[in-house]
């Protein structure tokens, strides 16, 4: 059977990573989390006190970084795994409203992502995968969920990880990030005409996975 390229886009905490990992395990495919790449640059900018309003300084910083997204959804900067460090409220605050808005930053990220996606048997998630990074993907899923459901999920995740943040603040930041991701000029979050929407608001993780499998099966039947 042909090895597929699967693109999953959608807003923050809609379940993209969870779904992508389950699908990758099911099909034996690689998984690339492109959000982790924007998060890694944000983390490095915080650590090096780089001015996050200065696009050229960010591009220069990116050039000093050997950014290695692992095929299991993690990420290394210059050989060091930062998969946990990138998922903090501080990184969340800057990643969507500053770091990912810059066209030159995006250009470098997209080039790297296209190299990784230049083969079948891959699942990539983000905001612009179906629209910009892998426009020829075999299957495009646009995963959505109500913002309150997403905030509850992220809040629960923070509680489990011992991160001190209130539900109200998580909800507020998610709304800000949704706005930034949908309204930036460069490669905004949008559903392409050939993407299939999947609403995970009232779906358990297993139900979401089953729904995605049905979408992929239907798409394969349509193609062959
Ligand atoms: O995990 P969560 O959904 O909260 O976010 P993420 O997927 O890790 O992405 C973090 C941020 O990076 C997003 O809010 C976007 O601003 C940016 N991003 C992007 O611009 N393009 C992508 N392909 C992936 C992420
Ligand atoms: O990658 P993205 O930010 O879109 O979302 P995620 O990190 O995969 O999921 C955010 C949280 O929602 C995780 O804690 C998942 O376990 C949870 N989740 C859920 O409870 N039910 C779903 N149907 C999907 C995700």
So, the CATH homologous superfamily? P-loop containing nucleotide triphosphate hydrolases
Strand content: 5-15%
SSE arrangement, N to C: EHEHHEEEHHEHEHHEH
The helix tally amounts to 9
Question: Which descriptor suits the 3D outline?
Answer: globular
Helical content (DSSP H or I, runs of 4+)? 40-55%
Under the CATH scheme, the architecture is: 3-Layer(aba) Sandwich
CATH class category name: Alpha Beta
What ligands are attached or bound here? cytidine-5'-diphosphate
Describe the structure.
This protein is an alpha/beta fold. It has one domain: P-loop containing nucleotide triphosphate hydrolases (Rossmann fold). The chain is 50% helix and 14% strand. It is built from nine helices and eight strands. Strand 4 and strand 5 form a beta hairpin. Helix 2 crosses helix 4 and helix 7 crosses helix 8. The longest helix has 19 residues. The model has no long low-confidence stretch (mean pLDDT 95). One cytidine-5'-diphosphate binds next to helix 2 and helix 8.
């Amino acid at each position: 059977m042909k090895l597929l390229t699967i693109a999953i886009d959608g807003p923050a905490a809609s379940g993209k990573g969870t779904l992508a990992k389950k699908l990758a395990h099911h099909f034996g495919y690689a998984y690339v989390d492109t959000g982790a790449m924007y998060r890694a640059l944000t983390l490095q900018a915080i650590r090096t006190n780089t001015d996050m309003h200065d696009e050229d300084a960010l591009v220069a910083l990116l050039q000093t970084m050997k950014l290695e997204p692992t095929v299991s959804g993690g990420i290394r900067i210059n050989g060091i795994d930062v998969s946990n460090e990138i998922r903090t409220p501080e990184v969340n605050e800057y990643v969507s409203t500053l770091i990912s808005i810059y066209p030159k930053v995006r250009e470098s990220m997209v080039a790297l992502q296209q190299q990784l996606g230049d083969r079948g048997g891959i699942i990539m998630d983000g905001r612009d995968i179906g629209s910009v990074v892998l426009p020829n993907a075999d299957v495009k899923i646009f995963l959505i969920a109500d913002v309150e459901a997403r905030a509850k999920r992220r809040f629960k995740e923070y509680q489990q990880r011992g991160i001190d943040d209130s539900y109200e603040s998580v909800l507020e930041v998610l709304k800000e990030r949704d706005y930034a991701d949908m309204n930036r000029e460069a490669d905004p979050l949008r559903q392409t005409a050939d993407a299939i929407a999947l609403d995970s608001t009232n779906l358990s993780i297993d139900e979401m996975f089953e729904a995605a499998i049905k979408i992929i099966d239907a798409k394969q039947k349509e193609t062959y």
